[in-house]
């Protein structure tokens, strides 16, 4: 099912070795001594080592350590408590606004229901009382009813 593995012989590569080239001995010329005036720092400074060698280089400012972060005057716990109080007040204000909105919405819906009842009641009243000019409906003849010995005789 699977092909047989074949062994490949890696091709020979040409290997090139590079050898470092030694530098010829350098001729050391002593640097001239620069007179330093007191109170000023020159751009280039020369230092005489105890063995007589002179080292010349640029003047570098002393490395200053980074300032330590100042401790806050108020503790973090107090800040957290204060922020929590502000957040609580914001939530209470939001809840107050939410309850006032719900109360206003309830009053509005109540007024709409009352308005619908008044309009519907007026329509019913017009239907009942406004039919004086038109004769329709069921005619009922009322006769004199006779009651004898608590029995109705019609």
How does this model look, in words?
This protein is an alpha+beta fold and 154 residues long. Helices cover 35% and strands 10% of the residues. It is built from one helix and four strands, in the order ββαββ. It has one helix spanning 76-129, and strands at residues 44-48, 54-58, 146-148, 151-153. A two-stranded antiparallel sheet has the order 1-2. It has a two-stranded antiparallel ribbon with strand order 3-4. The radius of gyration is 56 Å and the shape is elongated.
- Which residues form runs of ≥5 with pLDDT under 50? none
Any idea what the radius of gyration is?
A: 56 Å
The overall pLDDT, averaged over residues, is 76
End-to-end distance? 112 Å
Percent range for β-strand residues: 5-15%
Task: Compute the number of strand runs.
Answer: 4
Question: With helices defined by DSSP (H or I, 4 residues minimum), what is the helix count?
Answer: 1
Helix content: 25-40%
Given helix and strand content, the structural type is alpha+beta
Shape: elongated
Q: Describe the sheet with the most strands.
A: 2 strands, antiparallel
Write the H/E string, N to C. Answer: EEHEE
Strand order of the largest sheet: 1-2
